[in-house]
Design a protein that fits this description.
Rossmann fold; about 35% helix; globular; Heptosyltransferase-2; LPS_LOS_Heptosyltrfase; transferase
Length: about 325
């Protein structure tokens, strides 16, 4: 049976689909898995051994649909579920099943602050789309595959960090999901451990401002490494501190301890770091949440915003850095003091 799985973006959302990809491939005899994705995110799935073929979302719609039609898919698994995926499904005219995005429940939570979200991780909701094929969650968590040629060599990072470091992911897709620079400076100043800052090239200037608190302890790697190389630095780290963003989910896929920092979004949306039941059978909970509780305005969005609608940005400005450091020290096996 030939399946087309659709998830256009973004990094974290695509990583969250990997249990569906793996379970479908391994549990349906003879399954052939194709994946439709935006070109800028193809790296996330390019080395996944459970994907037989990647297809890229194209501006040339007619040619893309013609190419997809030639594949003669038996079924479409729509894990994005928007107007564009609806167009794909209508054009291909094959049976399909779509992920329930729970937009009404999210709207009620954001607008009325009444949490009617199910107490299920989004991955468990993704898995509902393949239930009819006899596919079940295998408990192995998420996947992220780093090719050998994109592994970071020891000499690619400072000698001061080669015996161990904490990875701090300073970027995020929206302003309201990121700690302000001065809070990140405070975090790095108080962290008694070598630090590597991770982010895109757009975060390099912010990384330089943060690095100034201690240029020896803090290494700014923002924009210096590819996505896979950054993922490898995550894999090599002792602990990952990250906003609600793609590298947070990659860290969980690589089974790294994580401190997840939440601003305008919330863990209640069901997208906390996910390790799988098999890992949790032999390990204590491997992540902590860091957030400002009892703010009437949280969550103000289901995805993130480019500005605080209230103007005060308390969800990040009031973040208790000392408490975050305490959690980090516990994760690092140090005193909680």
């Amino acid at each position: 049976m030939k399946f087309l799985i659709i998830r256009f973006s973004s990094i974290g959302d695509i990583v969250l689909t990997t249990p569906v990809v793996r379970c479908l491939k391994k549990q349906v005899p003879g399954a052939e898995i194709h994946f439709l994705i935006k070109p800028q995110f193809k790296t996330v799935m390019a080395h996944n051994p459970y994907v037989d073929k990647l297809h890229l979302l194209s501006d040339d719609w007619e040619q893309m649909i013609a190419d997809l039609n030639e594949e003669k898919f038996d079924h479409i698994i729509d894990l994005h579920h928007n107007l564009r995926t609806l167009r794909v499904k209508k054009a291909l005219k094959v049976p399909s099943v779509s992920f329930n995005k729970l937009n009404i429940e999210k709207l009620i939570f954001v607008k009325l602050k009444w949490n009617v979200m199910p107490k299920l991780h989004i991955i468990d909701r993704y898995m509902e789309t393949v239930k009819s094929f006899g596919v079940r969650n295998d408990g192995a968590g998420m996947d992220y595959f780093i090719p050998k040629e994109e592994e970071v060599q020891q000499n690619d990072i400072p000698a001061s960090h080669q015996l161990g470091f904490v990875a701090i992911v300073i970027g995020a897709s929206f302003y309201t999901k990121k700690l302000p620079v001065y809070k990140l400076q405070e975090l790095c100043q108080k962290m008694d451990h070598p630090i590597i800052l991770l982010g895109a090239k757009e975060e390099f200037a912010e990384g330089e401002e943060i690095r100034k608190v201690d240029p020896v302890k803090v290494y700014n790697a923002c924009g210096k490494f590819s996505l896979n190389e950054s993922a490898d630095l995550v894999r090599k780290s002792k602990l990952v501190i990250a906003h609600d963003t793609g590298l947070m989910h990659i860290a969980a896929a690589l089974k790294k301890p994580v401190i997840a920092v939440w601003g305008s979004t919330t863990p209640s949306f069901g997208m906390v770091p996910y390790y799988g039941d098999n890992f949790l059978l032999t390990h204590a909970r491997p992540y902590d949440d860091a957030q400002v509780h009892k703010l009437w305005c949280r969550p103000c969005t289901k995805m993130g915003r480019n500005h605080c609608p209230q103007g005060h940005f308390k969800c990040m400005k009031k973040m208790d850095i000392d408490e975050l450091i305490r959690k980090a020290n516990v994760r690092l096996g140090r005193s909680a003091q």
